[in-house]
Amino acid sequence: MPGGIERTRELRRKRTRKQKLTHLKSKLGKATPSEKTEIARKLRAMTPGAEKLIIDWQLGEADR
């Protein structure tokens, strides 16, 4: 089976996604409105739970 066991790949994707989310959240404090829009776009591409994160991180007004 190329690439290893599916569960291992799934866990690796989850860890990577968590690291990316942490990185984006750390940038959020100094972000300009256009950067916040870009962060919201990246969140939508990265995770299916993006809309909840956008609301929690208060990116809704910057995104629209």
UniProtKB/TrEMBL annotation:
User: Pfam families in the record, alphabetically?
Assistant: DUF6800
Give the protein name, as stated in the record: Uncharacterized protein
Source species, please?
Pirellulimonas nuda
Q: Where is the composition biased (Basic residues)?
A: 10-22
- Chain intervals for the UniProt region annotation (Disordered): 1-22
